[in-house]
Amino acid sequence: MDFNELIENRESLRDYDPNRPLDEAVLKRILNAGRLAPSAANKQPWRFLVVSSKKMLDKVRPCYNKPWFKDAPHILIIVGDRTKSWIRQLDNYNSIETDLTIAMDHIILFAENEGVGACWIAAFDNNFLRQTLALKENECVFSITPLGYSKKGHTKIIEKKRKSLDEIVEIL
User: Fold this and answer.
1) pLDDT tens digits, residue range 89-114?
2) I need a surface site. Which of 2, 16, 46, 118 has the fewest CB within 10 A?
3) Ordered structural domains, the chain, with CATH
């Protein structure tokens, strides 16, 4: 599949087969896509936490209360360190959220390319996750994603509704 087709057809998976964990090689390829993501000043202020063991999945899953989330064989949590990210001198803007977002986007798109489902989640219980993972004060999480295969196989459920280019583009 070419890149344009991948972007047009990617959708968030909310139907995971708990009995089909990812092969280690597939998981490493997906994580490598995140490793290769650009970051401001190439600081790479992240860690990728892959929750795969039953014990840790049981500890982490309560951070997001949706039934389908409990079936995912893996949960990826990208942790960023605010003290290691680039800071713009003019106004002290910290690039951490942008850097983590780009890494997550690379991972989700590469997962789709590998036939692996993902679903960008920002509505998780941040305090619960911080405590469960024993994150340091300077560490943050902006999004998480389950990773896995669909129970039913890949089927397009709904057509994406997006604004037209004319509605969102202004050429100056």
Assistant:
1) 999 999 999 999 999 999 999 999 99
2) 2
3) 3-168 (3.40.109.10)
Q: Which of 98, 115, 123 is nearest to 43 (CA)?
A: 98
**Cα–Cα distance measured from residue 86 to residue 135, given in angstroms and rounded to the nearest whole number:** 20
Tens digits of residue pLDDT in 51-89: 999 999 999 999 999 999 999 999 999 999 999 999 999
Question: What distances in angstroms separate CA 38 from CA 21, 25, 49, 83, 98, one per listed residue?
Answer: 28, 23, 19, 18, 10
Residue with tokens 């597939």: 26
Q: What is the pTM of this model?
A: 0.93
Angle 52-141-92 (CA atoms, 0-180°, nearest 5)? 155
Residues in the chain: 172
* d(C-alpha 148, C-alpha 13), whole Å: 9
Between CA 149 and CA 13 the distance in angstroms is 9
Concatenated DSSP letters of 82-97: TTTS-B-TTT--BTHH
132: left (phi over 0), alpha (psi -120 to 50) or beta: alpha
Pairing verdict, β 139-148 and 74-81: antiparallel
Which residues 6+ apart lie within 8 Å of 136 measured at CB? Answer: 81
* pLDDT score for 37: 98
